Amino acid sequence: MHTIWKGSISFGLVNIPIKLHAATEDKDISLRTLHKECNSPIKYEKVCPVCQKEVAKDDIVRAFEYTKGKFVVLEDSELEQLKKQNEDKAVEIIDFVKIEEIDPIYFNRSYYMSPNDGGTKAYSLLRQALLESGKVGLAKIIIRSKEQMAILRVVDNTLLMETIHYPDEVRSAADVPNVPVNDSIAKKEIDTAILLIDQLTSTFDPTKYNDDYRTALLELIESKKTGQKTITAKSKEPVANNVTDLMAALQASIDRTKPEKLAVKKKTTRKKAEPRKKQA
């Protein structure tokens, strides 16, 4: 697994040398843009709209637009100095909290942590302490010139770091438009909705879920490679988008899930009912 960062975890006076590895990967299919006439990849150039000419890399500077059309130019040397002052290659644990106290809206990206040279025992110590305390470490880290908050927890015997958003990076739910405050929902409607939820409830198994669009796109690409002109798309059951009777929709949904649930139940019952074989 590729190492993307090396540093240490600061845990009180304990220092744990670690390596960081991306825990997830983007499986999106990247499509190139071509010139329709000759199928050549399109080249994108950096052009100044005022001077009407291409700008070389050495002639580009970075700046902050503090108001429309007004900029503060920041020199590379200034940014590099600021980065050096704040980046000490350490994950500093500042608090320990219960993970249930952190709303999932704060979670951002996940990274596995492995011990670097000489850090095995301290790594194991922190891992066991987190497991037995039932807490997660709340830390600060600088990655790619950005200071981020993160939590440290244990997943499959491995330390996992998840970067989390700062509070001012999370938009307020109060700003969402057209959210109903109070609606008079009949008890029968609530009971029926809960019954539907119960029938659709299962144990979370991530292997059950697939990216259907990506699979279809790969099939289309493969068919094009082999010279096939078209492929047949899998048809899906139409979904009603103009429900006028909420109770009717709920009941129809319950009726549709019954056969599948009954089939699973019968299969389970049959397995339990099988007689035990007598030992010779």
Question: Could you characterize the architecture of this molecule?
Answer:
The chain is α+β, with helices and mostly antiparallel strands and 280 residues long. Among the domains are: 5-26 and 82-168, Beta Barrel (Ku70, Chain: A, Domain 2), CATH 2.40.290; 185-200 and 245-268, no CATH class. It is 29% helix and 26% strand. The chain has 5 helices and 11 strands, in the order E-E-E-E-E-E-H-E-E-H-E-E-E-H-H-H. It has helices at residues 76-86, 120-133, 187-199, 212-225, 246-273, and strands spanning 5-11, 14-22, 47-48, 53-54, 62-67, 70-74, 90-97, 107-115, 136-143, 146-155, 158-164. It has a 7-stranded mixed beta barrel. A hairpin with a 2-residue loop joins strand 1 and strand 2 (14-22).
